[in-house]
Amino acid sequence: MSKAAFKGGVHPPERKEATSSSATQWAPVPGRLVIPMSQHLGAPCQPVVAVGDRVVRGQVVGTVDAMVSAPVHSPVSGEVTAVGPWLTAGGTRVTSVTIVPDAEQDLDSFVPVEGDDVRTLVRAAGIVGMGGATFPSAVKLTPPKGLDVSTVILNGCECEPFLTCDHRLMLEESERVVAGARIIAETVGAKRVVIGIEANKPDAIAAMQKAAGDGVEILSLVTRYPQGAEKQLIWALLRREVPHGKLPAAAGALVHNVATAVAIADAVELHKPLMERIVTVTGRVARPGNYRVLLGTLVSDLLEMAGGIVGEPGRVIAGGPMTGPALGDLDVPIAKGSSGIVVLSPDEAAPLVDDDQPCIRCGRCTEGCPMFLQPFQIGTQANRRDWTAAEPLHPVDCIECGVCSYVCPTKRPLLQLIRLAKAAVIAKGAKL
Ligand code: SF4
Ligand code: SF4
C-alpha cells in the first residue's frame, strides 16, 4: 500500500523505460577531465595543483578551509594541463583543473581519505548531496544544537521524468544504500530509518526490502512529482510539517539521497573519495543507459560514449527536464550533482517564450504548486520587477520544482520568473 502524496504536484509522462532495466556500465576514461573547484553549495575550493603536476587517482586537487564546502579529487592518474575558468552546466565559469589521464588507469585503487570519525571522513571525501542539491554532507550530519533528529529518511523517489540512476543504484547496490543509511542514523543519533521509494519502481522496493534488515523501513510512495522534494517527502512519510524557514531537523528529520548514502558508506568503510557517479544518459541518444562516469568528464564526450545524438537535438538538459538547465555548450563537465543528461527532440522541447505571455487565470499553477504559492501572481510581479509587491507572495518559499511552468497552458516561464523574484527578495532582505 503506497503512502498518500503531498498536496499539489503533477504526474508527467515518466519516460524511464529506455534506461530503467539495463545495468549500469562504466563510461570509458575520456581524453581529458575538467574538474570544477565548485561542485557544491558553499565556498569554492582553491586549486592545490599547478600545470605540469602529476596527480594520482584520489589525490586532492582543490580544497578550502570554510566550513560549508567540500574538497575535490582527481578521478584518474595523469597530468595537469590547465588551471583556469571553465563553463559549467549552471551557466557560470568556474576555476577548474584540467587533467589528461595516463593511458593505463587502475580504477580499483585510490589515495584513501584520512580521519578518525564519520564527519571527518565524509568531509575529506568531498561528499555532497548527489540528488542535485550539492549541500556538503558533513555539514548536514551535524544538525544544529538543540534539535533532535529522530528519523533519517533516504530519498529513493527519483521523481523527475527520464532519470533512473537512483533506481539502478537501489537495484545494484541495495546493501550499500542500507549501510550508508545506518551510518547516517548512528552519526546523528536517529532511532528510525525510512527509505522512501515511488511505487513505479517495484523491483527497487523489493531489492531494498530484501537488503533492509532490522530497523530499516522501506515505504512505497505515490508516484507524483515532486515527491522527492525534502518538505514533501517528510510530509508524505512522517506527516510532519517543516516549519516555515526552518531546516528539516526542526521536524526531527534528516533527508539524504540514496546515492549520497552509498558515497558516505564508501567514505567511512573504504576511505574512498567521491570521484565518480552514476549518470542517466537518455532521450535522443543511440545507446541510452546509466553510466558510471568519472567526475570531470565533458558532456560532449559522455554523449559520444552513449553513441551520439540521434537526429536534430531540440535541447540537451543537465539533470531532469522539470528543473534542469538547457545546455548552450556541451563542453561542460559532469559534476557531483549531475544525475542525468537528457536529449530532447525539437518536438519534445517546450518552446522558449518571452516573459510577457498572457495569463488566462486558469488557476492550474496554484492548484499544482506543492508549496501553496500563487505562481501566476509572483510571475506578474516579477515581470514588473516589483519586488515590494512580490515579497508578501513568499517567492522565497518556492522549492523550484517547475510544476507551475509545466502545467501553464500559455507556457509562461513561471519558474524563471519566480527564481528571479526569489533572488531579488533574498537580496533585498540581505540589505536591510
Ligand atoms: S512556485 Fe515554485 S514551488 Fe510552486 S510550483 Fe512553481 S516552482 Fe514549484
Ligand atoms: S497556469 Fe498559467 S495561465 Fe493558468 S493561472 Fe497560472 S500563469 Fe495563469
Account of the protein in words:
This protein is an alpha/beta fold. The protein has three domains: about 30-110 and about 275-345, Roll (Ubiquitin-like (UB roll)); about 120-270, Rossmann fold (3-Layer(aba) Sandwich); about 365-430, no CATH class. About 25% of the residues lie in helices and about 20% in strands. Strands 1-14-13-16-15 form a five-stranded mixed β-sheet, sandwiched between helices. Strands 2-8-7-4 form a four-stranded antiparallel β-sheet, with no helix packed on it. Strand 7 (about 80-85) and strand 8 (about 95-100) form a beta hairpin. Helix 4 packs across helix 5 (about 200-210). The mean pLDDT is about 95. Bound molecules: iron/sulfur cluster (2 copies). One iron/sulfur cluster (SF4) binds near residues 365, 407 and 410.
Structure summary, number of beta strands: 16
Strand order within the widest sheet? 1-14-13-16-15
- The level of helicity is 25-40%
Following the backbone from N to C, one meets helices and strands in this order, namely EEEEEEEEHHEHHEHEHEHEEHEEHHHHH
- Low-pLDDT windows of residues: none
Per DSSP, the total helix count is 13
CATH topology of the largest domain: Ubiquitin-like (UB roll)
The overall average pLDDT, rounded, is 94
The overall number of domains is: 3
- Biggest sheet descriptor: 5 strands, mixed
| Cα end-to-end separation | 49 Å
Rg on CA atoms, Å: 21 Å
CATH architecture classification name of the largest domain: Roll
CATH class bucket of the largest domain: Alpha Beta
Query: Structural class given helices, strands, pairing?
Result: alpha/beta
Query: Could you say which overall geometry the principal axes of the C-alpha atoms support?
Result: globular
Molecules bound to protein: iron/sulfur cluster
